[in-house]
Amino acid sequence: MRTPFVAANWKMHKTVDEAVDYARSFLPLVDAVSDVDIVLAPSFLALPALATATGSSRIGVAAQNVSAEPQGAFTGEVSLGMLRASGITHVIIGHSERRQLYGETDAGVNAKTRATIEAGLSPIVCVGETLEERESDRTFDVLDRQVGEGLSALTPEQVAALVVAYEPVWAIGTGRVATPDQADAVHRHIRQQLASQFGEASAAACRIIYGGSVKPGNAAELMALADVDGALVGGAGLEPTSFAEIVAASRPVRRYNQKIMLSIVLTALYVVVCLLLVAVVLMQQGKGGDIAAAFGGSGSQTAFGARAGATVLTRATTVMGVLFMVGAMTLAIMGQRGTGSILSGVDGPGFQQAEPATLPVDSAPTEADEAEAAAPTDAPVEAPAATPAEPQ
Fold it and tell me: Which end of the chain is more exposed for a tag (fewer CB within 10 A), N or C?
């Protein structure tokens, strides 16, 4: 079962002292959280200090980049050996800004991912499409290439243990966010691609998180999606309180309760429809005298009149029958998608008890968004006007 995974990517923000101060404020806010994996990704210079500041907690520390080379004449690069010595646990690889601004390729992502795993660290591999690619209906083609080439030569066991971050480039630092339907479709597609490349078991175990202007206001609904296992947070991760709220929204207990409540409501409505269907059938057969009496008559015929009663009951039976079938199909689909059974108490196949839950709002960017967008980026600043023609 997949444990929710939430990471704050600080990008080029915060000095060493500011990183330590953040940890002091943040740790008490999530001290009781044991069902979400939390990671902070500061600049290279702050890695040792932050690893020390969080050393007694469950919080991991990630580097934002790494070289695939062990050592050598590579000016400005940082090796995995150096990162391990600093006490980190994770490495972000292939972030869209690395791809867009510094020309990082799928082959380079693959080399870094394999080297990171061999070094005993956990990679967070980023994939995602640009606005142009989305509008030209190439989202899935782009993701298939990035996943296929970026994870090439990995074993199923290695894929099961890593984290894949889907970050639509058009949503990063813009205040825009993919709708729940868009995110759900893309995450399901990525998991299907992983299944075809590495097998169903590895795909089911691999955590796929969403990154793209995630905030406290939209985190809950995104995390409620069956194939969204957490978030890679940018601007909203720069403030301890804001990031703690996103962590809270990712907790599996909250997600489970939301699904159960929805299932209870739909099941109750379905029971009402079933009872009404039984009632109108009995009345139509002349066996519902007591029911008809409730409407002011001694039987179905006297209650409505012979011909009018028959017409009304026939229509009512048809309507109830349609609602019965729609309700049955809805509950069946929910069971397949993982809401679980409230009667048996058994979780559906898509639900993870240890896994990572308001509508995305299209509002003006917050101060945190502006901080995230401050770094130069080639990413477009508008969300697409329409979703791709094919389901994502």
Answer: N
